[in-house]
Amino acid sequence: MPSRLLPFGRSHPSQRRDTKLRPSHLEDLTDLETGDNRRHSATMDFLHFGSKEKRQSSSGQTTPKNKGSPRIPPANPAKIEIQMESPPCVFYGGPNSSGALFSGQLKLIVTDIEVRLTSISMDLKANASAKKPVGKDCPDCINRITTLKTWNFITEPTTYDHGTHRFPFSYLLPGHLPATTHCSLANIDYCLEVKAVTALADVLNHQHPLRVQRALQPLPEKQSVRIFPPTNLTVNVIHAPIIHPIGSFLVQFRMNGVVEKQQTTSIRWRIKKLDWRIDEHSKNVSPACPKHWNKVGGEGKGQQHEEMRNIGSDAIKKGWKTDFDAVGGGQIELEFPASIRPGANPVCDVESPTGLAVWHLLIIEIIVAEEHVKHSNKHAVPTGAARVLRCQFKVVVTERGGLGISWDQEMPPMYEDVPESPPGYLTDYTGDLPMPPDEDLETMGGQG
Fold it and tell me: Bridge partners of 394?
């Protein structure tokens, strides 16, 4: 007779009622209870740990955070570059300069298989930004942007294949424009801004700064005379009217009238010290936008700011030549080099219609002491009187022109300046032309 199959893991009810707990069963229950306690204690520790972290974060202590994966910006189907082909933009001369001609190429580099563009435009902009505007955080008070030139390279949607596509451009900057200037009151910058729009409305932008400089031609040395009444002292100074940020220039100094003769004595002046310095003055008018007209008193007005700083100085205590017996009341001569201090970062002279002006002055201060001299023994006695003689001279700081010349002097000649070519033939020759001997002539086919 086949035996019954009992369910796995289940016992008969009668057997379950009659079963008694054995000591081994008690040990198993004890182990199960101990395991439950351990799991419960681990759970409580986790909860306490979590509450501890919350308490630390609430008390101001930082807790480690999981950093997510960085976002990768979508790749543009193309990129834009500008390659300049002309020399640096330099105005040779003053505001009446013929300007500066620059040229280059706009490079469209397509990285995808192809890209379809609806427009490609480029603007040449001049930005005059004030560092002390009327409205502190107002962009309209800070920036004054003027568009000088606009290029539209395409007028209809165009598809470009993978590779580099070039668009040439050129422009003649007017010579009256101010040069690129960065000073403590304002900035003047020039920039080429490119904007390309794809068929999917994606915008490709690119900016290329354009530095504009001005170089003045050297001028003859300037001679200046200063008179200091009530004394008879006169100062004659010869210096270069145009100086450069790098390099030195000579200053010739001569003082006349240092001796005033009387009946028994003479009064003469002796130099004790000579100081020179170069001061840079800057002035800017910050206009107000329509929102801040009430701060300056109405439309078209602004706030004027001025600053002055020293960009070079020196003190000379010896080295001059004194001749009290010279004709004209004696004289003192001195020649010394002057220069702008390295690292001063001077700003070249500029005068802009936007309200920015920068100029420089060479200031010379001479300390002279008075002496009495008796004609009998020629002994000089200091009187204790002294004077400070101060004179200033305007100098222009500009960039060096180097070997460069203006664009209108290096351009090829015009058609009307080119002589007729080829040259004309001689028409006044009469007679037969000389012919070579017959034996020197070769017949065709090698037959004589």
Answer: 361
> Looking at residue 419, what is its pLDDT?
65
Q: What is the reported pLDDT for 255?
A: 94
Q: Where does residue 297 fall: left (phi above 0), alpha (psi -120 to 50 degrees), or beta otherwise?
A: left
Q: Which residues contact 317 (CB under 8 A, 6 or more apart)?
A: 272, 273, 274
Contacts of 411 (CB under 8 A, 6+ apart): none
Q: Which helix (H) or strand (E) holds 112?
A: strand 100-130
Q: What's the CA gap between 66 and 25, in Å, rounded?
A: 48
Q: How far is CA 96 from CA 56, 172, 216, 360, 402, in A?
A: 72, 14, 11, 21, 20
Q: DSSP for 45-77?
A: HHHHHHHHHHHHHHTT-----PPPPPPPPPPPS
Tell me which amino acid residue 3 is.
Answer: S
CA atoms in the 13 A half-sphere facing the CB of 156 = 0
Q: What is the CA radius of gyration of the chain?
A: 45
The position carrying tokens 């050129």 is: 170
What was the pLDDT predicted at 12? 42
Listed residue (269, 262, 412) closest to 331, CA to CA: 269
Averages of pLDDT over each 10 residues, the chain, 448 residues:
40 42 45 47 45 44 56 80 92 89 94 93 95 88 93 93 94 94 95 94 93 91 93 94 94 93 87 96 91 82 92 94 88 95 94 93 95 82 92 94 71 64 60 61 53
Give me the helices (H) in 59-189, please: 139-142
Strands (E), 131-157: 143-154
Q: Is the pTM above the cut of 0.90?
A: no
Instruction: Give the per-residue pLDDT at 17.
Output: 41
Gap between the Cα atoms of 276 and 273, Å rounded: 10
Q: List the beta bridge partners of residue 150.
A: 123
pLDDT at residue number 422: 62
Q: Provide the token pair at 213.
A: 């400089």
- Provide the CB-side half-sphere exposure for 388 (13 A, CA): 6
Cβ-based neighbour number of residue 385 at 10 Å: 12
Residue 331: CB atoms within 10 Å: 20
User: Residue 393, Cβ neighbours under 10 Å: how many?
Assistant: 16
**Pair 55, 89: CB distance under 8 Å:** no
Nearest-angstrom CA–CA distance, 415 and 419: 9
